[in-house]
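**Paired protein data**
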Amino acid sequence: MNSVVDASWLAEHLGDEDLVVGDVRGPNAHMRGHIPGSRPLVLGSPPPGADEATVTALAQEVGLRLRRHGITGRERLVLVDRGDGVGAMPALQMAELAGHPNVAVLLGGMAAWQGELAEGAVELEPLREAQAEFQPNPAAMPTRQEIADRLGDETLVLLDIRTPDEYTGRRGSPCDPRQGHIPGARLVELGDLFDGPGQPASPDRVRAVVGLPEGAKVVAYCHSGSRSALAALALRAAGYEARNYPGSWHEWSRHDELPLER
């Protein structure tokens, strides 16, 4: 299973025994109307800044959250939000951090689903640790240390998903003590990667925008990890191995030992 699927794929596979649909909109929204057989899945969001030890501890905690929702790590897990990717992409990163090997986002979320809906609460069946298979994967969440260590590494591409003024430091967020961008990062504006909310542009269009061969390894960042999470969605849909750096410039700018460019 790819890391993105569309509504037609989900409709075709919805009855598969090894498929679990996790609705990340929250229990109340799920109760009012959800894809049949789906379950509410609350995993939280990546922290705005973390070191290796924090990320490792968080991976174990997210594994516990998955087990509480009856997720084993052996299923194909499809995450569904309202449709803009804002909820599903952070949840995907958290699930991958915990070590789930087969997670995808439903492109367009609930807005793209044309099938019937079910209503009411769904009773979850928590699992014991021995019933699940999660090996924490800290690499799913880039840290400032990893990026600093890999500056100049030709096997990793950094994409800055901000405005030109933020990138150059002319007009960044006033809450950041330093302005500019991570050395070597390429500027890409989020709107160039999407045709509409939650709908990535075609793979050919995305590849033309970023100027990278399919399969390149990418870390995206913005100011606080929100725009770059969405960029990671479009990049994955285009065939890239893309990760989001949640700390982004908000974290990087606070560490004087880390270099910057303008």
About this structure: The longest strand covers residues 19-23. The chain has two domains: 4-137, 142-252.
